[in-house]
Every structure is written in C-alpha cells, then in structure tokens.
Amino acid sequence: MTWTTPNFADQQSFSPQSVFEAGERNHHVSNTAYPIAHEQTWGPYRVGRAQYRESLQQAFAGIDNLCLYAHIPFCEKRCSFCEYTVVGRNELNQTQEYMNRLYRELDMYAELLGPRRLWGFDIGGGTPSFVEARLIAEFMERVHRRFEGMDQLRVSIETTPSIAANQPDKLVAYRECGIQRISMGIQVIQPDLLLLLNRDNNGVEHHHQAVANLRAAGFDDFNVDVMYGFAGQSLASWQATLEHALALNPEAITLYRMRYKLTRISHQADQVSLDQVRQLARWAKKRLAQAGYQANPGKNTFTRVPGDTGTSDYISRRVIEGMPYLGLGLGAQTFTHTTIGYNDGAVGKNLLPYFRSLDAGNFPLQDHYQLPLVHMMAKMICVSFYFGEIDRQAFHDKFGRTLEQAYPAEIDYAVAQGLMEWKPRSLAMTTHGEDHFSGLCALFHAPSVKAYLLGRDPEQAGDFHKHRKLALRVAG
C-alpha cells in the first residue's frame, strides 16, 4: 500500500509531554473529531476535481469489504448543539428530490466499484426518519441490489422522540424493510435547557410512547443518546436526564460530550471547564455500571447485553478494524486506507451543490484528500478511542507496522503515566487516561495537528467565533 509523502509540517517531532498538555488545554477541540484546523493541516493533500474518479478507483482497489453510511440531512428543527450537516428550513420540502439524487449517487459508486460486500450499514443524519418511510424502504431495496451481505447485516437508523411517538407506522415500515437497530436522541430532559437548545418539541411527554411504539414494531436493539457538558448544566440536571434514560430500559445508552465547534452555542465553550466535564462523566459511568450497563474506560456506549458492543455493525467495524466506508449523501465522509473525502454540502449545508454535481454526472465530492500515513493512522486511532482502545492486530493489518513501531515515544509516555495499558489484543485506556481523554488523543495526532494545538491559546482562539457565525448563517 502506498501513501502520499508527508510535507515538512508532518515530518516534525514534539515532546509527548508538551503535546499532552496542549491537548488538555484545548480540551474542547482535541477529541475524536479528527483532524483539527482542517484547511491548515490537510489542505496540502487536497486532490483536484479532475482527478477524483482516478483517485477513487485507486483508493478502493483491493478493498472487497466495506461499510456504508447514508446521510439524510433533514430535521424538524436544527438543534443549537448540532455540528452536523443539516439543511435549513427552506429546503425541508425537497425530500423526494434529495432521495432521487441519493439513489443516483449509490448507482454511480456501485458502477465504479463493482460487486463489494457490506459489513455495516447506517442511515443517519440529520433525522432520517423525517422523510417518508417509503423512501427509506426504496433505498434499502436499492442497496440490496447493489451490494452483497445485506441479509447478514444489523442495519441501524436514527429517530427522534416526537417522530417515534407520533408516527408509529414508520417504525413498522423500517422493520419490514430489514432495519434491525434504532437509535433515539433524548439528549437532555430539562424544559429550560431543551428550549435553549431549540429542542423543546422533543420533551419527556413523547419518550415513553416512543419506546412503546418501537418495541411494538419489533425493535429489540434500541439505543438512547444523552448529552452532557452544556453551559449551566448542573450535576443534578445531568443525573435526572440519565435516570430518565435508564427508566426507558434501552439495550444501550450512549454518552455524548458537547463539542462546541461548528454550533450556534460555540461562544459558551469557555463557560465549561474540564473539571466540570469530568465530574459529570464520572458520575454517569458509575451510575450506568450500577444499573448493569458495561463499557471499558474511554468507551462512550454502554450496553446491558453481554458480549455486544452496543453499537451498530457500521460503528463497530469502523472503530475496531478501521474498515473502509463509503459515505453517500450531503456532506457525507468516505474513508479508505489512503484517502478521505467529504461530499458537497459539508461546509455550506445546502442541497444545491450536491444536486448540481450529480445532475452533471460527477461524484459529489467537495474535498478529497490523499493523505500520508501519519494522518491515516491518526484518524484510525481517534475513531478507535470511541471504544477506548486500539486493536493491535487491526492496526498492523491496516498499516503494516505495530503500534510500538508507529508511536514509540508516545506509547512509552502514555504507559509510564498510567494513561494506557497493554492488553492481550489492544492498547487500552485506563480510568486515569479516561480522565485525560483530550491530552491522550493529542498524543496520536499527526505532527501538523500537534503543532496547531501547541500554538493554540484557547483563551485567545477566534475559531469558535468564526464557526458560530458560519453555523448561524447556514442554519437559516
């Protein structure tokens, strides 16, 4: 396998101690969302549009097994904490037009790649259950025709409490077309915080009916998302949210720490300290363990099903194996062994660029990067940290070297400081490492990203303000 030659910025080396401290200082941006300072650190590796098809063919050559993600960018409302690609209010009536383009993109990639086997498939957003159920069923049927392995997959979809409570026929339709897993975002339950987050239409009055409907539809693999780390969110408030989630008795509960970049409330980031975040996380993990939900240190999805990851096949394969995945839809990401691409709409969050590319017969890529080894390894490790550990064999299989060969100084530091420990199959976070998640992530970033963190003063950084202005503009 051949990777792009790194530029000068990605051939530097830095003291693990200084990088760890920089990650801790910049805890709101140093996390699993890799890379940081995208234009600065990845910009030199951008591929021109004229080379997209050739680059994609080379990147997918020899990849017989992959995952699939389909992005549906519509929502009832855009939540104030949302960093994802969601279209504005004036485009919510274009679901049929959007799905037609999504079908077209699927066909284009299927023709480019030929027969491939899927090992994971997620339909996310946005809120994919916003669109008519028949459109989801038609898309499922098209994927069945284009890829192998669908009969063995645990396909996952996302919904909201209000949709699940008020449109039970959609849930029945999902099960009938082969979707086995569903995830529902509760996030928080306090009315004042829900109102602040522009999520007051998904309050607790919907939750129990939503769960009853999805159970009646036949879903026995159900995840609930909850969020912490908001400005003004007290420990008591967080405790009430988690207790409520436990009372719904899902198979899995996923804890998401608020990430402020690219959101309409990014200006509140400096109101939330690392100590506050740690307090909320520690209590939640202790309470979940008491309730029979298990996860190793660093893992953010807790499950009560023995031997199960609690996540979809798509997430599990990505996290553990670093399996390549094809992303379809507005702003979706595609990941191979040597490249990463982002679809049209990832920045502007509107449908027109995506529509234009597909209508012209072009792959709807906004940015496509052929990356050096240091960035591809960093991306895999950041994703691995969703489960709190790096699979040693999977890393070696993907990159042709051991973790010790790739990161000798960083691993020596992490192990000596009690942040990580060797296990038979993995290099895993300790409980101490979990408390220092941001610094630990930074250790494995590529040199150009480390340099950015080392030079970034969180007290003076203007990037949150810039991202908030963008988020407010595209939200409509």
Blueprint (SSEs and pairs):
Elements: H1 16-25, H2 38-41, H3 52-60, E1 65-72, H4 95-113, E2 117-125, H5 133-146, E3 155-159, H6 161-166, H7 168-176, E4 179-187, H8 191-196, H9 207-216, E5 222-228, H10 235-247, E6 252-257, H11 274-290, E7 301-303, H12 313-321, E8 325-328, E9 333-335, E10 339-343, H13 352-359, E11 365-370, H14 373-384, E12 389-391, H15 392-399, H16 403-406, H17 408-416, E13 420-422, E14 426-429, H18 431-435, H19 437-443, H20 447-455, H21 463-475
Parallel strand pairs: 1-2, 1-8, 2-3, 3-4, 4-5, 5-6
Antiparallel strand pairs: 6-7, 9-10, 10-11, 12-14, 13-14
Helix pairs in contact: 1-19, 1-20, 4-5, 4-13, 5-7, 10-11, 12-14
Average pLDDT level: 91
* Overall helicity: 40-55%
The low-pLDDT segments are 464-476
User: Which architecture of the largest domain would the CATH scheme give at its second level?
Assistant: Alpha-Beta Barrel
Biggest sheet overview: 8 strands, mixed
Secondary-structure content class: alpha/beta
Percent of residues in β-strands: 15-25%
The CATH superfamily label of the largest domain reads Aldolase class I
CATH topology of the largest domain: TIM Barrel
Q: Number of folding domains?
A: 2
Gap from first CA to last CA: 44 Å
